[in-house]
């Protein structure tokens, strides 16, 4: 029983003295922007205007037609401490979570049968300083963004990013028109911010001294057990 108790005590001392590797992380964020120009593509996305009803639906950009913008983001890198190794690395593209505002122009596209066939048809006119309200999403054509790990350097590489733009184009009415129903289209542009975020987690490489310490402890155990046995 004295031999067993001695072994347990010595082993506990060795494990307590062995250092543990601690993980750490680095995060690098770089902000930039891109410009997107767009228009309502066809009658599925044109707005409607009616002089009789006073109806004004805005031209839209929606499912089935996503105007796209693209940009190239230049490489960024981080370095982990020398001798440490990378345990994980990810790239995130952060986009506005609220509406992005830009410029816009609304124009008459196509007349519909008028309320009164016997009366003149006068189309409405719109201002030249309209606006657009859109949401921006990362398009799947951007692909899976994988960091490049080269020794103690982690980088994004040059990224070809594609974005979808969805929303509405608006403008003021200069003259309401007379006896006119029809479609209105529009065009516009926005400048949207975005951020490329590189997250890296790394850990120290276990030092040989930890193994050496464990070996010394085992030798000590043998000597300790021998002394107890002979006494």
Can you characterise this structure?
- The protein is of the alpha+beta class and 231 residues long.
- The protein contains two helices and 15 strands.
- The strands form three sheets. Strands 1, 2, 3, 4, 5, 7, 8, 10, 13 and 15 form a ten-stranded antiparallel sheet that branches.
- Mean pLDDT is 82; it is low at 1-20 and 210-231.
* Shape assignment: rod-shaped
Distance between the termini: 13 Å
Radius of gyration: 34 Å
How many domains comprise the coordinates? 2
Overall pLDDT metric = 82
Number of distinct beta strands: 15
Element order: H for helix, E for strand: HEEEEEEEEEEEEEEEH
Strand content: over 45%
User: What is the helix fraction of residues, given as a range?
Assistant: 10-25%
- Regarding quaternary structure, what we see is single chain
Low-confidence stretches: 1-20, 210-231
InterPro entries: Ice-binding_C
Keywords: Signal
Protein name: PEP-CTERM sorting domain-containing protein
Provide keyphrases for this structure:
231 residues, alpha+beta, 10-stranded antiparallel β-sheet, 48% strand
């Amino acid at each position: 029983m004295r031999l067993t108790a001695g072994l347990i005590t010595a082993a506990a001392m060795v494990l307590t003295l062995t250092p543990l590797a601690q993980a750490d992380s680095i995060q690098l964020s770089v902000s930039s922007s891109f410009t997107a120009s767009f228009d309502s593509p066809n009658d599925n996305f044109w707005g409607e205007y009616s002089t009789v009803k006073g109806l004004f639906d805005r031209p839209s950009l929606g499912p089935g037609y996503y105007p796209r913008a693209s940009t190239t983001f230049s490489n960024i890198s981080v370095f982990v401490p020398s001798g440490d190794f990378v345990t994980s690395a990810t790239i995130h593209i952060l986009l506005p979570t609220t509406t992005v505002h830009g410029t816009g122009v609304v124009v008459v596209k196509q007349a519909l049968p008028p309320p009164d066939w016997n009366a003149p048809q006068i189309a409405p006119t719109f201002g030249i300083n309209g606006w657009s309200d859109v949401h921006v999403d990362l398009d799947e054509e951007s692909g899976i963004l994988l960091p490049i790990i080269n020794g103690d350097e982690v980088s994004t590489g040059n990224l070809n990013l594609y974005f979808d733009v969805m929303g509405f184009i608006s403008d003021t009415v200069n003259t309401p028109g007379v006896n006119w129903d029809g479609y209105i289209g529009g065009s516009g542009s926005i400048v949207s911010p975005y951020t490329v975020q590189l997250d890296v987690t790394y850990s120290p490489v276990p030092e040989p001294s930890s193994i050496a310490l464990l070996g010394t402890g085992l030798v000590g155990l043998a000597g300790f057990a021998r002394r107890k046995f002979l006494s």
